[in-house]
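At this stage, I wrote out one protein, both as residues and as discrete backbone shape codes, and that material follows here.
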Amino acid sequence: MSDLRATGQVGGSIGAGEPVKPVDPMETADPAETAEPVQTGEPVETGDPMGAGEPVQAGDFAEMGDAVRAVGRLWGVGLGPGDPELVTLKAVRLIGAADVIAYHSARHGRSIARGVAEPYLRAGQIEEPLIYPVTTETTDHPGGYRGAIDEFYATCARRLAAHLDAGRDVVVLCEGDPLFYGSYMHLHKRLAHRYPAEVVPGVTSVSAASAALGRPLVEGEETLTVLPGTLPADVLADRLAAGGPAAVLKLGRTFGSVREALARSGRLAEAWYVERASTGRQRVAPLAEVDPAEVPYFSIAVLPSPAAQPASRPALARGAGVGVAVANGAPGQDPLVAAMRTKGEDGSVRDRRQAGYATSHRKTAENWSEAATVAAGGQATSRAAGEPRRVAAVEAPGGLDGRPRGAHDEAVGRPHGVPHDGAHGRPHGGADGGIDGGGVGEAGGGRGEVVVVGLGPGGRAWLTPEAQDALATADDLVGYGPYLDRVPPNPRQRRHASDNRVEAERAAHALELAAAGSRVAVVSSGDPGVFAMASAVLEVAGADRFAGVPVRVVPGLTAAQAVAARAGAPLGHDYCVVSLSDRLKPWEVIAGRLTAAARADLVLAIYNPASRARTWQVTAARDLLLEHRAPDTPVVIGRDAGRPGESLRVTTLAKLDPAHVDMRCLLIVGSSTTRVVERHGRPVVFTPRRYPA
């Protein structure tokens, strides 16, 4: 078999991959020049900052000319009711061009606003999570609930003012419309008189709920009344008794009193309930039939225009599809529309086009769906193994003034939470039936913790949503310097970089910070549990003084998985993972494991194959394997997978040249069944699932 090579391939499909776009990595010395990394596992990175993106130039913004503007501009950007496709074009452009992205967040770090905006973020942006201190009106703050909230917004305003004073443009994300029960208004009132400020409106949940019902809210001379569900039941009843179309927002813990008010006003029979409008878990039902225990905060009561009553009531559509109310047997119904409808497993009518929409948009809606499950008091549902979570990136047409900018990096969806109704707690700032306002999650404990975070082997596209959550909410970041460089800067956070040979000390430092009350993220390349920091942290955490410090591990994509995906599917059957580094175990142990794996006909993923100070192991390993493997056994040499300048070489065991291998490489040695084929001019390696009898 000839020595085949493919370089610079990216993309998920096997075959035609696009060339890697050149990005200048931050150059750092190869740690292997001085010493062998201890338990680093993944090939040592060259310090390319994760998602560095393009530097923001002064000329990119309006009213600047060729001079640097003295202060930045504040934007309150509405995101709509939940569907990322309902974000306006202007909002997309501003989100992608801003220097700083701010968003309200729960204490556990999840943010619905960021989840909706995720496809439009640009790598390298500074992120400012505005974490609510309370979620209910119960607080021990001397000023009570209002005092706690006022202090929170004053602190947030100071943080954003520091960016604006430095000339950075700040976009504050807001679910729904920023000035329609939105939390942004509290920042606007504190900052708009000091800095240039603009509000970008968004689609409200009232509009989304009307669309879900398929019924006009108002017609002709009718007047729409919008009421917060937090009003006393007698006040609500009086206002509803006046008649006319209405919408009642902020349900959740208020649902009982809202339902009572509707009954007292004689309007319960005409009220409809819409939950999580426009999202993948949208639900529509007659309000009188709704169980109060199942009502999340993001729901709305709608009394649509009586001028256009349907011939029959809308059917409840729910489940895997995007729930929409459809009129059964309405006169004048388009036969094509009727043909598109089908019965769901629960007997409800579901539009097949909507089911298709749900399938194609699960990548975007699923973020909200999982969060909504948590909001309802349950646990987020795990997706099937291998189901993608990617959201297609949208390239914004320009900077904050519409001038052309570089293409935005692709982003990955992430699972952000929504308010946890829990003991009927509600967030301040109000959200209506969709996700208008600044929704937050349940309040967590105030003590610190250590989260060991896997960054994956490449850039932002391979950083998991859970890892992004952990990084965004940390007070302190601890890790090997080049790995910390991959995390975008955040002025709110403290960084503690260290050498790659002091893992125990690094772990102890992280635990000490957490013991003092900080939320600490310890970063590792690849997966933190594969030759990396997780074991070091857990080992040190066994000391009595750290017994009370919580430690959790957030997995990451491994180098073995990344190289395998670039090559095809060489890990398609049984395989093992071995490190050739002999700093923590003698070579005799390594040789014994290589021999055992070769005899067992396992595919091998080989980490830490060589360094500048340690070059002989590749040759020794090759010779050991050749004692039990055929000379034409396929071998994949992956270097810097998922990073600028990545390369992939496919060769054979007999032709494996140590000169092509260094510390930034990972080797995959096939089994007796591993095959190599050519597709679209490049080699594709795979190991069949079936094994010969």
